[in-house]
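On to our target:
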Amino acid sequence: MSLAYFALIVAIVSASALEIAGAKFGAQLGMMAAALSLLAAAFSAGKADYEHYLRATAWCRWVLIAIPLCIAAQLAPLWLSLAHPIWAGTHDALGGLPFGPITADVGLTLNALFLALAALSLVGVTIVVVRDRGRAELVLFVLSGIATVGALTLNLHWLSPGLVGAASDLATTFAGLGIMLNLSVMLLAAERAETRHSVVRSLAIGLCGLVGALASAVAIFGLSGTNSAFAAAFGLVLILLILVIRRLDLSPLAAGAMSVAALVGATIVLSFLFEKSSGPILLRLVPDMAAETRAALERMLADTRWFGAGAGTFSAVGRIYQSDPGAALLAPSAATAIFADTGWLGLAAALMLSVVALLRLFFGALQRGRDSFFPAAAAACLVFALIQGFASPGLLYPAAILCLSVIVGLGLSQSVSQSSR
């Protein structure tokens, strides 16, 4: 299991550091490390590890494979009348069989499939590997450090605009995740101080978490868009809700009433955010854009069917709709890209997976005796990702996908674990 643990760390660190630095091979290295960690875990896992995995994924075991299945279906021969309208036009012009792969680019969709499988692998490997509390703490420290580095690059971008460049969306996403993760580090330090652990060491850990949280807060609340700040605020509210319910030791009825009140308030705020602008709902939280670009995106979304045009093919299909041949049509948000690539089925699968995992983490955080900050932080990160996915393309970066997978796996694992083994 040590090799799987080492490969897990390498996967998230290499993919994140290289992608923040602008390297082109970070995603490939991260996926290779994820495959190695899965192989090592498969050979070293025992019966207890398997039973722990089944308990951790009790609510969402089959939902986890929904997105890879949607992508794989696009590579299988299907009736092209169910797919994007470009297929009907091509078939009428060139003739040929009325069925085939739905994707517009097999290579890009295969790459998206491998990335989805790597993310799924990291979720499973993390669940098994971080059963041990010491390993779970180290993974949390690594994730918070990666997120803080991303936030710092966004802060430095304010001083030197050429430093971050195209990765500013990724840095914004890391900054949002960094707030939740560093707050979790602070809660870990507080819990250690309440027990028999060294107060000095707990204080040092807490100060590191505070510095990371402040750096992330400056980046997300001061240097990013309004909608990204709202997404981070929702995550913070969820952590505080879990903390209040646990600290006050509320009864199930009182906790349920408080949770429902928070959900109603969140619904009202989200409705206000989505109603501030008109047009397709997937474009209402994205930053302002040129009228020609928005019109092209609306046409592209209107043509999307149940199966989309192929996972990872947004930029390729976008060339059909762009008005200026010299300007590429890029996805303004992760939700827009998922819908255009995989259609209604893919977007519904992604939302269903997120909601089921969020509920699993929320109830896991409330039921834990110790270490509830692990599932609480994962749930808060997932809330941030859900809302951020409609406002920014930051979650389309492989580094963000792999890190979020490890965060979810960490939360699921520690929602059912006991003490260190």
Notes: The radius of gyration is 22 Å. The mean pLDDT is 84.
